[in-house]
Amino acid sequence: MHHAHAIVTTHTTRHLRRTLLGVTVQSPAVRSVTVTIDGDDPSIAGLVASCAQELGVPIIRATRAHTGVCRSAQARNNGVRALLAALRPAPAGGDALAFFDGDCAPARDCVAALQSLLGLPRRRRGLAISRVVYLSQQQTDAFDEAALRAGRWPAAIEPEALARLRGARRSAVLASWLRPLRLTKPHKPKLMSGLFAVTLEAFGRVNGFDEAYAGYGQEDDDLGRRLMASGSGVGVGIGRAMAFHQWHPTRHAGPWEGSPGIARFRGPWSPRARDGLETPVAQPHVHIDVCMPDGSVARHLDAPTGPTPTGPTPTGLAAPGPPAALHTAPA
């Protein structure tokens, strides 16, 4: 039996607690929860520790100093490296990595819906995609945590929002049908990094996210096209695997063509990233620990900050550092 592991990426405390609430009430439960922080703000690390106590689950925590620019691709890889360093027995290649942005709280059956789309041998599905529902400021303020715990939606979703999800699902399913005929773009159906799942084996095969991407945008499009080019089939979970993006002030993203990663995205590429999970771009020291429900912090670990991995795991991926004190028995 394969397990699921939740990886939450953030750079702020905003909405993180609710997202961790959603992650920790999954049914069936995820085997592990990791928070990877693009920065070393002590208030974020402290919130993760308090959530481990409140929610009653160990949380793997990865932090490193901010580099002056958003490096969400590297932060997500740090989350996987932290998982591999901290968890014993090690995750299996068929295990699901479910990725969430820190402001996207999943419904209680979200991970199960994503995982059900993975690992179908005849279709070689290594990737499952979905889309978040965007909550308004009023819906976010009235977010119903009791409903989320009970398996209901935490807000009333307007018919227009549900119609947009249905439209997005139709487009993604069509793109998945057209892919074998080479009648769609290489990155379609589109992966959105705030809500998706991938098997550990498929993620390792392409060397994870390409860490050459810096700033906002295109690192998820790039991962999707490399996964599909490497042979991973795509399961479309839009409208089934639900997560709720909580409102916050933001700048307008601007046109796709003006995003920082577009030149990189349009340049040469191959299915396996040169700078990725096993061969990270140089970064500040990555601090990994495990926040325990009793308030203690289990063993501190190090992750690689440069291109030299420390050894293979049973899945063939680089496992940074020695094993931690977090041991879990298969469910």
Q: Mind telling me which CATH architecture this is?
A: Alpha-Beta Complex
What is the chain-wise order of helices and strands?
Answer: EHEHEHEEEHEEHHHEHHEEHEEE
Shape: globular
**Beta strand count:** 14
Q: Helix/strand/pairing class, anyone?
A: alpha/beta
Strand content is 15-25%
Q: What integer is the average pLDDT?
A: 89
Poorly predicted segments: 308-331
Question: Helicity, in percent?
Answer: 25-40%
Distance between the terminal alpha carbons, to the nearest Å? 9 Å
Describe this structure in words.
This protein has 331 residues and is an alpha/beta fold. It has a single domain, classed as Spore Coat Polysaccharide Biosynthesis Protein SpsA, Chain A. It is built from 10 helices and 14 strands. β12 (286-291) and β13 form a beta hairpin. α1 runs parallel beside α2 (42-55). The radius of gyration is 18 Å and the shape is globular. 48% of the residues are buried.
What's this entry about, in short?
With 331 residues, the protein is an alpha/beta fold. The chain is built from ten helices and 14 strands. It has helices at residues 16-24, 42-55, 72-86, 110-116, 137-141, 145-150, 159-178, 200-205, 219-229, 262-266, and strands at residues 4-10, 32-37, 59-63, 87-88, 96-101, 104-106, 125-129, 133-134, 195-199, 233-236, 243-245, 286-291, 297-303, 326-327.
